[in-house]
Write a structure and sequence with these properties.
Strand content: 15-25%
Helix content: 25-40%
Shape: elongated
Structural class: alpha+beta
Length: 1462
Amino acid sequence: MLETVLKYSSDTTTRTLLTEALYMDQAIVMANHPQPVIMTAVIKLFTTMLDRCSPEDSLLHLRQNIPLIMAQQLHKHATISTHLVLAAFSLALGRSFTFEDYAVDCDPSLALPQQVVLFIPLMALLPHSAQDIALCHNSLMVMLDLLHKNMELIIPLIHKAHFVDSLLCTLKKSLHTEGVGVSDVTGESECEVVVSDITEILSWIINCLVASPQHKNFMLSLEVLHHLNLLCRGESAVCGGQASCVGHLQGTEAALLQVALSRIQATASTHQHTLPRDINDSLKMEKTSVSGSTSLHNLKLFSSGAPREDSDSGVGSVLANYTTIPFTKSLHNISEQLFVSQSQSSPALAAENSKKEEKVLSHSELVDRFKVLIQKATDFLFMSAWSSVEAVASALPSASAPETFSLFLLELLLCAAATIIQRKGNSERCGWERMVWGCQDILRMHLNHLLALVTSPRTHIHTRIRAAQALASHPKVHAIISYTSKANPQLLYKVGIFMHELRYQNENKLDESAIKSCEGVLQILEECSVQVLPPPELYPPHGAMREWSVVSEEKRQWQEESSKIAILVVDRCNKQDKRLLTKNTHIYEAVARECSRLSRTVVDRQNVERKIVLGGIKHSQCRHVHLTHRWRGLVEILTHERATWHLSHAYPRSWQLDQTEGPMRVRKRLTRGRLHIKPRYLMPEYSQKIDIENQPSPLESVLKGSETESAMAVMIERLNVSERIVHMTKASVVSPGMEQSGEILISRTAMYFVGEQVTIDMNQGGSSSEVVSVTWPLDNVREIHIRRFQLQDCALELFLTTGHSVLLAFTDTQHRNQVIGMLSMSDMPNLSSKATLPEVTAQWREGHMTNFEYLTQLNKLAGRSFNDLMQYPVFPFILSNYTTNILNLNDPTNFRNLRKPIAVQRPHKEQHYMNNYEITTQISQNAGNGPYHYGSHYSNSGIVLHFLVRLPPFTQLFLRYQDGNFDIPDRTFHAVQTTWRLASCDSTTDFKELIPEFFFLPEIFLNSEGFNMGVRQSGERVHHVQLPPWSCDDPRRFVLIHRAALESPLVTQNLHHWIDLVFGYKQTGRAAVDAINVFHPATYFGYDVESGSDEISREARKAMIKTYGQTPQQLFASPHPSVSNTGPPQNPQAPEVLHEVRGLRWGTYAGSPADDRPILALVQTLKTPAIYVTSISPTELLLMPSHTHVLNSGINKGMNGVYILSSHHHDGIIRCRRLKDTVAHPLVSVPHYDEVMLCSCGSSQVWIGLASGQILVYSVTPSHVSDELTACVPPTFLLAHTAPITHMHVSEAFSVCISGAKDGMCVLWDTNRLSYIRSIGSSGVEVSLLAMSETLGDWASVSPLGSAASVLRLYSINGALVDSAVTPAPVTAITFSSAPEGTAINVIATSLADGLIRLWSVWDLRPVRELRTDRARQPITSLHYTHDNHHLCGITESGILLVWESSLVKTKIPKFITVPSL
C-alpha cells in the first residue's frame, strides 16, 4: 500500500511523504524479516522511493551504503521466492522485470557506480536461490546474458556488488542443498546445472579479465581464482578431499585455469599480443575470440587423438566451440531464442571491434602473466594430488577434473617446449614463440614436475595412459626430453620408473595401444640417456623383488617430494588468504559505521514515537492503578472491624509481626494478616482463624480484573518516562525467606525497584509470580549501610524514616558501589550521619548508652540485618537461672559466663570441642577446609525460626524450612530452661545464642494463633513457652526482667568479653582457637565457593553458606575496653519493684522511688496563659496556649523546623506559622458541616479529630523556598469512631496514633500506611486522656468514673490489657517517663484534681509515689517529662508552672519558651 501511494502521488505529496513520514532507514530495518512477501514489499517500496526522490537524495542514499546494508538484512533469512528475486532484478535494472518477458539490451548506464550498487540486494539473494534450482538457473542465465551484452559491468559488479563472492556462496550452497533431483532432459544432477551455470559465468569473467591491457584487471582475475581455491580448500578441510563438493569445485577451478591459459595462448598466437585501447573494447574484442554461444557445458579439452587446426606456430586455440544445452521449460522459463539471439550477436560485435584502434600489450607483461598462470596451474595440480588417496584414485571409474586438466597442461607445455627447441631468431618468432622463449626456464621446471605427476602411480591409470600416448606420439619428444633433462634429470628417472611400473605391473589393465605407448616412452627415455629399468624377463633370478623395491622406493620418494611441494603451495596460499580477507576491511568498517548511524537514527525516531504512545498508555495505566489503589484504600477504610461495611467472614483473624522498627530497632507491633496454612497446623479450637482463607477480600474480583495490581505497578514503573533515570542496575530485594530479583532505577528524587521474579529460598526451591514494584523517595532515606549477602561483599541496606529497612543485594561489589556513589550525589535531606564504632563505644563506656542499645548498634555496624535470617542480629544468653522462684540480679551465679562461648559454659565440655578441632585439623589437610570447634553456628535461619515459630509470618517460614511440618515436639522451643540447658551443657550440637526479641517482644512466647505443634513424650502439649518461675509465667514480665538483667551492673562489667568473642579479636585467629571459638569455615567471610573440585562440591559449598550461618563482620582487632561508668549507685532503701526479683533499679528520673527527696526546683506564675508544656529539644520546652499544637518537621533544622498550629477558629481554618514568626497563614480548611474537636501533630502529619468521629490526616511538608508549611490535599479520612473524638496521641517512635472517643472506644492507627490497626474497649464512658510510652510502646487511657474518680488502664502496644486502677480523684493530666528500659522502671505520672501527682509503675500499674506541693493546690492540667527525664514539668489550672527534678543527678532547669496565641 505504501508503494502504491508513493508511486501514484503527486510530486508535492511525495516530497512531503519522503521528508516527514517515510524514511529510507526504516525501509532498511523492515527488510530484516523472515517472510519473503515482506522482503519483496520492502524492496519494491525501496525501489519506488529511489525512483520518486530527488537525484541528489538518491545519490546520497546510494553513497551511504544503503543497498549493502539492505543486502545484509536480506541475507540473514534463508527463505526465498520468485517474486523476491524478481523485485531485486527490477531494483538492479531500474525497470519492471519478469523471466517470461525477459529482455536485456546493451545499457552502458548500468555500469555507473550509483547503478551498480543496486545489484547488491540481488547478489545477497542469489545464494538462497540455490534452494530452487529453476529459479537459481534462470537468475544465473540472466546475469550471464547481462554480462555478454554489458561487458563493462564485469569489473564494477566485482568491486562494488561483490559479484564473485555471491557466485561462490551460491556455488557452495547448491553443492550442499539436500533433496536435489535429476534434470529430465540432460540427465544431469540439478546441482550440476547450477555448477555449470556458475562455471560459465566465472569462465566468461576470467576470459575477459586475464588478457586485459590493465594489469589491475589481470590481478582481479587472479583474485577470482584464489577465491575459488580458498573455497575449495575450506570444503576439503570440512568435508574431506574425496567429497563430491570438493570434486565439483576442483572441476570449476580446472575449467577457469584452462580458460585463462587458453586466453593467454590465443592472445599471444592470434593477435600477436595486441589488444584494444580501452577495457570496454577489450572485453568486446575478447568475446569475439570465443564462438558466440554462452554455454560451457560442452567444453572439450584438447587431446592428442582429436583433430585441431594449428596456427602458424603449430598451436591452435584450446578453447573448443560450445553450444547451449537445451534445458526444458519445465526447469526454467527462459526461451531458447534468448540464447540463439546471443550467439547471433557476436559477428556484428566482431565487425564493430575490428574497426577500433589497437593498443600493443608489452611482451614482458604477457610473459609475466603466462608465468603466473603456469605456476598457479601447477600449484593447483599438486594440491589436488596431495589431497587425493592413491587407492581411491585408482579405483575411480574415470579421471578427476584435476587429472584431466593435467593432460591439457601437459599438451600446452609440450607445445611450448617444442617451440623453444626450434631456436628461431627473434625476427622470425611470432607472438606465441616470443612469449614461451621469455619463460623457458620456468617452463622446463614445470614440465619436469608435470611429467612426474601425470605418470605417478597416484594418478588415475587412464590419465597415465593418455599421458604416455601424448609423449609417444609427439613428433619432437626426443628433443623435448633432452631439453628438460637438463633441469632435473632425477625427475625424468622417476618418470622412467613410473612408466616401467605402468607397463609391467599393470599389464592386465592395458590394451595393445597402451602397451605400445608405454614401451615407446621407455625407449625414448633410454635413447635420451635417461636410466630406465630393463624388462622383467631380463632380470636375474629373484630380480622381480629388486624391481618391486626400486619402484616402491621411488614412489615413496616422489610422494615425499610432492607433499613438500604441496605444503609450500599451501603456505603461499595462506599468505594470500590473509591479504585477500583483509582487502575489504575498509568497506566493512564503513558499513558498520553506517549501520550504527542508521540504528541510532531509527532508535531515536522510534523512541520519540514510543514516548508518545507510551505516554498515552502510561496515562491510562496510571489512572487505572491510581483508581485501584484508591478503591483498595476505601475498601480497607470501610470494611475493617469498626467500619460501616465490615465483612466478618472475609476479614483476617490472625496477627503477624509488622516490620516497622521502633526506638533502638525494636519491632513490637502486630498487624492483621492471613495465615495461608492448612487446617492441620492449628488446634481444633482455633480452626475458625482459617475459615476466611478462601474468602476473597471485598471487591477483590472487581479490582483484580485481568491483571494483578502488582503487574500493573510493574508496568507503571517501567513506563515512568517522565522522570529522568540517572542509573539502572540489576539487584535483588532480600527479605526473610525470600529474594526478589529485578532492577534498581535511581532518579533525582526517588529510588525504584521493578520486580521481575520472586524466589522463595528456605533451603527449598520454589518461586512465586507475585512480583512487586516499590518506590523509595530519597527524602525518606535516613541511613545507608554496606552489607554482605551470602558471604559476598555486594549488598547495602537502606534505613527509612518510616521505620522500615530494605536490604538490596547486587551482582558484585562494583555495582553496589556505583549505586552508593549515585545516592551520595543525590539530595537526601533526612540522611543523617552514621554513628561510628569509636563513637558508640565511647558512649557505652561512659554510661550514655545502654547495653541493649550498644549491642543493637554493634549488630548494625557488623552487618546483621532483620531482612536476612542468616545474618539476623545476635544477642547473648544472659541468665543461667531459670528454675528458682526468686531471681537475684546481684548474684553472679545467676548469670552465664560471658568470657566463654555458650557451648563451653561447663568446663567438662571444653575437651570435647578441643578434640573436634584436632580431628578436623587432620581432615582439613585433605579436604581443603580449615579446622573448627563447632560444625555449625550460634545464629542462622534455623535458630531464628526456632525461636519465632509461634509468631507469623515466621511460622510459615518455619513450616517451609521443615518441609511442611512443625519440628519434633520435644525439639520445639517449649521452655526457656530447656533451651538454656541444651545450649550450655546438655548438647554438643546445640550452641545457639539469643535473638533481640527475647528482650522486648513477649508475643514470641505465646501461641496466640493456636498452632498445633504436637505433644511431647511426657504427654504435655506444646503450647505457650514455659517461662521461669520468677516471671510468674507472664511473658511481658519475663521480657522486662530479662531486659533489666541485660542492663545489670554484673553484665555491664563483663559484656565486653562476649563482644570479643562475637564481634572482636577472638572471632578468628589464634585468639579464637584459645577461646574455643572457631566455627565451620563456611560461616566466615572469604570462604571460596568456587574452589570445589567439581560442580557437586561447589553446590554443596553454596548450600553450606545458606544454612550454616554467617559470622558477623569483625569490628575489633584488639581486646574491647571495659565500661568506665556503671551509673549512680543503687539506693538500698528504695522500695522493692517485684517480690520475685532482687536487684531491679528504679532509675534516676524525676520522682523516682529511689530518690528520697525529689526537689521542686521551680514554681512560676506564667504571665501568658498556657495550658500544657512540650519539648522541642533536650534543653528547650514550649509553653503552649489553648488550641495550639507543635509540629517539629525535622531534627536537622533546629528552631526553623518548629511550627505552631492553631485550631478551633470560627471559620474552620487551621492556621500555621513558624515558631520564630509572628504572622500565621491558613494551612487547611475543615469541612463546614463538622466541628474540630482537637489536633495532634507528628513530624510531617496533622491529625484532626472531628465531632462526627472522623479523623482527617493531612501530610505536610515545608516549602523549599519560604519554609512555609504546605498541606497535601485531599486528606485521608479515617473511619472507626461513631462518637466525637476526645483525645489523640501521635507516637513518632512507634509510628502509631491512638485516638479516643466519647463512647470510650480507643483505636490504634498506623501513621505510615494511614490505616486501621485495632480497637480497644467501648465502655460508653468517654476517654478523657491518652498517653504512650516512647520506650515500651505501652499506652494508657483515662476515663472518668463518676465525678469523683477516674479509671486508669494500661495496655500493651498490641492491645493486651496490662492492668487497670481506680484513682481517688479525677485524673487531669497524664504522661510517661522515658528512661532507658532495663536501667529504670518507668512510671506513669498522673495528676489528680486535688493537685496530687501520683506515679504508677508501668510494669504492673502499682502506685509507687506521690508528689505534692503546698504552693500550688489547683488541679494540674499538663504533665511532661523532659528528654533526659530529670525534670517533671506541670502547669496548673491557674497558670502556675511547676518543675520537679531528681536529687540523684545534678542538672540544669531547661529553657521555657512562651508561645502566644494566634
